[in-house]
Specification:
mainly alpha, 145 residues, Tetracycline Repressor, domain 2, 6 helices
Length: 145
């Protein structure tokens, strides 16, 4: 039953992200939208259920045959990273799929270890997105970023 809930919500989040991606977006906007969608999911489920479900991804009991291709949000994010890499915005050797997985795992870890009411939570997540973008960029960001 829980597995069905997780898959259904993953599909719903991916559908919302897909709609967001119907118009051209830069990767910063995509990452921020993913953060928003994760917050929405946490609000719908409640923080206790959300943390329990996310904890399953970090559990040794996680199915061994669980592949990144089973997670539509990872697939969509990887495709966006690949497009940006192909446009020359990121280092040529950026592994789009691993970068997508690293971003989402880091995001889930941050969200699950901070309470909703944690002061500065939004600012920390903004810095996380900025850090992810800096790690991928082929050129140094301008001082304003």
């Amino acid at each position: 039953m829980l597995h069905k809930l997780i898959r259904r919500e993953e599909a719903r989040v991916a559908a919302e992200l897909g709609t967001f991606l119907d118009s051209s977006r830069d990767l910063a906007a995509v990452l921020k939208e993913i953060v928003r969608l994760v917050f929405d999911l946490e609000n719908r489920w409640g923080s206790v259920l959300f943390r329990d479900v996310i904890g399953l991804y970090f559990s040794p009991a996680r199915p061994e045959n669980d592949e990144w291709t089973d997670h539509p949000t990872i697939v969509l994010l990887a495709a966006e990273i690949m497009r940006a890499r192909n446009r020359g915005e990121f280092f040529a050797d950026v592994d789009a799929f691993r970068s997508a997985v690293f971003f989402l795992l880091g995001l889930y870890a941050l969200v699950t270890t901070m309470r909703t009411e944690t002061p500065g939570r939004d600012g920390l997540l903004d810095k996380y997105v900025a850090s992810e973008l800096r790690s991928l960029r082929a050129e140094a960001p301008s001082p304003a970023q």
